[in-house]
Amino acid sequence: MTFLKSVTTAAFAAAMLATTSLSAFADNVVIGRANEPSAIDPQFSRTGNNQMTADNMFETLLFTDANLQMHPHLATEWKNIDPLTWEISLRKDVTFHDGSPFTADDVVFSIERTDKVPNSPAPFTDMVSTVAKTEKIDDHTIRVTTKRPNPALMEQIGRVFLVSKKAAENASLEDFNSGKAAIGTGPYKFVEWKPAESLKLVAYDGYWGEKPDYDNVEFRFIANDAARTAALLSGSVDLIDAVSPADVARLEGEKSIKVYPIESGRLVYLALSMRDDTAPGVVDAGGKPIEPNPFRDARVRKAISNMIDRNLMVDRILNGSGVASAQIVPSVLGGYVKDLQPTKPDADEAKKLLTEAGFPEGFGITLYSSNNRFPGDGDIAQAMGQMLARGGLKVNGVQTQPYNVYAAAATKGEYGAYIFSLGASTPNSEGSLRSLLQTYRKDAGTGGFNRMRYSNAEFDAMLNSAMEEFDHETRMKKLEDATKIAMEDQAIVPLYFQKIYWASRDGLDFTPNLSERTIAQDVRKQK
């Protein structure tokens, strides 16, 4: 079955009626984004929609480039005094948007605040989980003491968004959303956020780094793929992200449009909840919840994996815009296991495993997914439902929701079987393994994205060993071993890595990146 999306007449008309583009003026750019943030507070939610919003206004100790490699940024250098102690030097020529100086006080405050933001649907806890103490040495030097040896400390705290202590210390979420507390050191300053509509920014004249090409930026949040494409074609926006694979060929055929493809580090996967004795939506023939939870049995998880035709999903549903996967990071990152490759669907093996697990006739299941987080997510869910039905399960429904609603519900454990994604954000697999598969412990700050509540002591032990290994080659080998343990246990069901696209009109260039971010600093005037 092939799902195709096209620019409808209604969507095109809607785009034509949009507010006149700021790009009518030379130093202004309008960007059509598929999803919007849930808040402006950069530490509120570690989700892509929030982080790419924060990246415009707030900065981090390290800068992550288009290939996920990390470089000095607001931290200029660092050293190990001993295995538990790090000394970090900070950039001196930096000011916040309100003109106040950036100092060690702001960094100490930001690191300590990271895991204390109330009601976070996706906390940054794992970035600071090994931090025992952060101290100011002088205005531009801090000392971090860790709970255990942690060679990846800078990869972790280096991604913490830094806020102004003065502006954020007593600020509420609404203070950030209104702009009152949205005071960063980034290239752009907050102007106005209209939820479900737009975010407006203005270049910060006092920015310490490379000056952005555009003075004024407007992000318009256009969830519908066809409407986003229509807005680009009509000229009401200058750049769009999350281009539907079905629209790529058409846009490539337009002389005034440029398309930017990249194979991303975002893994789309099927999560099977193991957090409770029963799993939401998993029922017997009579419609009653099954206890004990079938998903706690690795044989059931493996059976479901054997029902899925990943290549068909990529080729037919996504028009080739993906790379089938059997593990958590793509081949360009450290910790990738070369001999761990996706297998073809095997209905006989799936039936055998279900029978061994005590479900020869299968069981009922409801599948959940977002419908606007990434191109084709709703279509993938429908196709997945058909595959599971053919594999021997009774699919009672496929339910999709807008991502902002969906992500919060998934974090609360409201779904049994659900499609989610995780974008790699570090040079190797450690960050993804830690956040997605390490045993969830709120007090220890581990497993921040482990919504399934998967737990495997052998995996945890190998991952912990890798996390304390300072020799690079040995560390990468241990990360590979940890991945093998988790995938042999079918901790999650990997589906594919996205191939994603942006598209722009003539007059500007865009730098695509593995992290999928769509930020104004990556938009440049065409030379």
TrEMBL record:
<feature type="signal peptide">
    <location>
        <begin position="1"/>
        <end position="26"/>
    </location>
</feature>
<keyword id="KW-0732">Signal</keyword>
<keyword id="KW-0574">Periplasm</keyword>
<dbReference type="Pfam" id="PF00496">
    <property type="entry name" value="SBP_bac_5"/>
</dbReference>
<feature type="domain" description="Solute-binding protein family 5">
    <location>
        <begin position="70"/>
        <end position="440"/>
    </location>
</feature>
<dbReference type="InterPro" id="IPR030678">
    <property type="entry name" value="Peptide/Ni-bd"/>
</dbReference>
<dbReference type="InterPro" id="IPR039424">
    <property type="entry name" value="SBP_5"/>
</dbReference>
<keyword id="KW-0813">Transport</keyword>
<protein>
    <submittedName>
        <fullName>ABC transporter substrate-binding protein</fullName>
    </submittedName>
</protein>
<comment type="similarity">
    <text>Belongs to the bacterial solute-binding protein 5 family.</text>
</comment>
<dbReference type="InterPro" id="IPR000914">
    <property type="entry name" value="SBP_5_dom"/>
</dbReference>
